[in-house]
Amino acid sequence: LQDEDLPGMSYRTSVTFGTVNVTKTESDAVQDVFGEPVNHCFKINPFALPNTVVIDQGMYEKVKDSNYKFTQLDESVIKGLIYRIFLVEQN
Mind listing the pLDDT tens digit for each residue in 21-43? Predict the structure, then answer.
């Protein structure tokens, strides 16, 4: 990007898992993805700092024994629901 004099990029990634619904157009391309995992990702994403990944409790339970470092952020109440959110980092 710098070689082309383009601005830098940053990301905030949130990850969870579960069943989603996908609607498709006539051309079979994905039109929309919706469901509880999409909503969870949307709600926890603001807790990710620039260039970091956060996961919810359900995903943490699936990957907690992997070779990553997980730091629990403060429990967050979003629209009356308590979310346990974890920052994911390389070990």
Answer: 988 877 776 688 899 999 989 99
